[in-house]
């Protein structure tokens, strides 16, 4: 039985990856940061809430309290587990927030990666342990070519992108310096019903559900013209695993090869709740109107603009498709939006039932 260690296991990708590896017969270990509130909702299909308050030590799945910024802690955990594979998914991953918290973003996204690589090195596990580093399309930032592939020059446009660029290069450096199986998966935007509620896609699908159920009147967004390559997180974790099963350590772009605007995402999300959007005006005055009622349901708010914007990201997944046999469009863009909206319609509806029940 292979052993895998996942940092960021409570996140969107971490929870899907844990489920995927358990189905593959792995013994899975996850690192979670101690919090004063319950933060393991995405793992509820694996654990019960009562069990998760203690460190779990069953045959297949275990949680360990830790933090990638604590080098001693990470070294101890890796030493105890002796994992065959490490998936470093821990990050401060909100691009807009990274402008407000640049130092913290650096500590987690850059130094955290170094701590894992160095732990594997000093523990003498370089021949045993494979390391997957979750890299990002934000490395490309001010894109130098379209589409972006494994050889496209980087030009990050946020503290998040800059910190992740260190993580990318230090992973590559340790691979070349110490002959480690350490690789980067350059993931383009990937979403799901488990996406954090502050991320733009989830913000849109939640708002569509709330507006359809008369719990919210207007959705406020930043740049509606931003172009992104959006895929389904559940499909992307399979590619992470495939990268570590490849016969040699290589870096891969993980993307769909399709690009859509935020505006398109909004239109599709609202269409799934039977609201057709009509756009009026331009720039910061642009508004989305419910075509049937004439009500304004979408507005542009400049406070959501980034200090430096990334206008378009489009990945070229040819290498992953060719060498790994991965299907980047297993779930289409339209299906992804529908999955998210359907889940959020249920969520908002259930919230109302719970209020009624407890009243």
From TrEMBL:
InterPro entries: GDP_Man_deHydtase (IPR006368), NAD(P)-bd_dom (IPR016040), NAD(P)-bd_dom_sf (IPR036291). One of its GO terms (molecular function) is GDP-mannose 4,6-dehydratase activity. It catalyses: GDP-alpha-D-mannose = GDP-4-dehydro-alpha-D-rhamnose + H2O. The keyword Transcription does not apply. Its EC number is 4.2.1.47. Residues 5-340 form the NAD(P)-binding domain. Pfam families: GDP_Man_Dehyd. It is an enzyme of class 4 (lyase). Its cofactor is NADP(+). Keywords: Lyase, NADP. Belongs to the NAD(P)-dependent epimerase/dehydratase family. GDP-mannose 4,6-dehydratase subfamily. Catalyzes the conversion of GDP-D-mannose to GDP-4-dehydro-6-deoxy-D-mannose. This is GDP-mannose 4,6-dehydratase. The lineage of its organism: Bacteria, Bacillati, Bacillota, Bacilli, Bacillales.
């Amino acid at each position: 039985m292979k052993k895998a260690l996942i940092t960021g296991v409570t996140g969107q990708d971490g929870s899907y990856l844990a489920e995927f590896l358990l189905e593959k017969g792995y013994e899975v270990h996850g690192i979670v940061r101690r919090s004063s509130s319950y933060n393991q909702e995405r793992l509820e299909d694996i654990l019960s809430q009562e069990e998760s308050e203690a460190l779990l030590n069953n045959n297949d799945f275990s949680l360990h309290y830790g933090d990638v910024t604590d080098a001693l802690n990470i070294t101890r955990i890796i030493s105890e587990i002796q994992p065959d594979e490490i998936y470093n998914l821990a990050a401060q991953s909100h691009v807009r927030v990274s402008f407000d918290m640049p130092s913290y973003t650096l500590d987690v996204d850059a130094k955290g990666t170094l701590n894992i690589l160095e732990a594997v090195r000093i523990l003498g596990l370089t021949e045993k342990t494979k390391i997957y580093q979750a890299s990002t399309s934000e490395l490309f930032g001010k894109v130098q070519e379209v589409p972006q592939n494994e050889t496209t020059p980087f030009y990050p446009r946020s503290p998040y992108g800059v910190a992740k660029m260190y993580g990318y290069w230090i992973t590559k450096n340790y691979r070349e310096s110490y002959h480690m199986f350490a690789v980067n998966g350059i993931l383009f935007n990937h979403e799901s019903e488990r996406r954090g509620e502050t991320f733009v896609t989830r913000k849109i699908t939640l708002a569509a559900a709330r507006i359809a159920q008369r719990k919210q009147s207007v959705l406020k967004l930043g740049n509606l013209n931003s172009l992104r390559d959006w895929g389904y997180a559940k499909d992307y974790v399979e590619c992470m695993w495939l990268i570590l099963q490849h016969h040699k350590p290589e870096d891969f772009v993980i993307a769909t090869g399709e690009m859509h605007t935020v505006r398109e995402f909004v239109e599709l999300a609202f269409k799934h709740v039977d609201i057709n959007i009509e756009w009026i005006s331009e720039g910061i005055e642009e508004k989305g109107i419910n075509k049937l009622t004439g009500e304004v349901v979408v507005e542009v708010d400049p406070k959501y603009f980034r200090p430096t914007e990334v206008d378009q990201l489009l990945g070229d997944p040819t290498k992953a498709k060719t060498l790994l046999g991965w299907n980047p469009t297993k779930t289409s863009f339209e299906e992804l939006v529908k999955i998210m909206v359907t889940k959020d319609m249920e969520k908002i509806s259930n919230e109302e039932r719970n209020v009624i029940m407890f009243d």
